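hey so u asked for the seq, here:
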Amino acid sequence: MLRHDMIDTLQAWNALVGKIYVPHTEDEYRRLVALLDDFIDEVGEDEAHPLASLMEIIGVLIERYEDEHVPELIRESSPSCK
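ran it, structure tokens below
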């Protein structure tokens, strides 16, 4: 990455610190879900919306947490339950 790209990224990230993160606790997970709900209200299904990609990233972070920590989802996705 070029130096100016790194500077731009750092400046943008500073505005997002505490809002976008890998959730490790249920509280962090719930805050991220609430943020995703806000994004869904704003973006909807408009894939061309400037925030659509960020909304997708938040969804992936939530899905990762659920895959690892939500027992009901783990059981439902288990091959032995089908």
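The two ends are 46 Å apart (CA to CA). The longest helix spans residues 26-43.
lmk if thats what u needed
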